[in-house]
Amino acid sequence: MLPASFFVACLPEASMQETHNHRIKAWWTSGRTGIANCDSSPSAIHFTAPPQFGGLEGRWTPEDLLLTAIGSCFATTFRALADYSKLAYADLEVEVAGSVEKASSGYAFKNIVTRPLLTTAPATDHERALRLLQKTQDLCLITRAIAVTHSFEPTIRSAETASTTQ
């Protein structure tokens, strides 16, 4: 694991607090679609179940969003590491694919694969670039979070109580 000073050097404009909290809210808005938003973006995301489970075509699914979280985390982590390591590159495209299969307790991801395609200048040391890609995979916060313990804290309130407390 890299020391905190590494991340300070990578992200000089960011504050290095011990804890950073993130939160989204999601609502089921109609028959087959929902909406999610977060404090860090003014744009909402419209989502649905996958079409094979009765969802609408043309909307993000939870499965898409999970793979997007992995890919976008990989890309942002690589950018920070490449900047810190002074590795110049022309482009990074990250494809993330996952297979979902029926299991005894419902459906589950069987595997997820991340396929980064790094475009470098002709004189770039490819072994060094490959080590940096591997380090990115090892440090990607979202990839590491997939194995984290997930707490479940449900709340139920009646509509009558909700209307009197607002």
Number of helical segments with 4 or more residues: 5
Please indicate the count of domains.
2
Mean pLDDT level: 85
Order of helices and strands: HEEEHEEHHH
Strand content: 25-35%
Description:
The chain has 166 residues and is of the alpha+beta class. It folds into two domains: 18-60; 61-147, GMP Synthetase, Chain A, domain 3 (2-Layer Sandwich). Helix content is 34%, strand content 30%. The protein contains five helices and five strands, in the order αβββαββααα. It has helices at residues 4-10, 62-85, 126-139, 141-145, 159-165, and strands spanning 24-30, 33-38, 41-47, 89-103, 106-120. Strands 1-2-3 form a three-stranded antiparallel sheet, with no helix packed on it. β4 (89-103) and β5 form a beta hairpin. α1 (4-10) packs across α2. The protein is globular and about 65 Å long.
Give the topology, please.
Blueprint: H1 4-10, E1 24-30, E2 33-38, E3 41-47, H2 62-85, E4 89-103, E5 106-120, H3 126-139, H4 141-145, H5 159-165
Antiparallel strand pairs: 1-2, 2-3, 4-5
Helix pairs in contact: 1-2, 2-3
Briefly summarize what is shown.
With 166 residues, this protein is of the alpha+beta class.
Could you name the key traits of this structure?
5 helices, 3-stranded antiparallel β-sheet, alpha+beta, GMP Synthetase, Chain A, domain 3, 166 residues
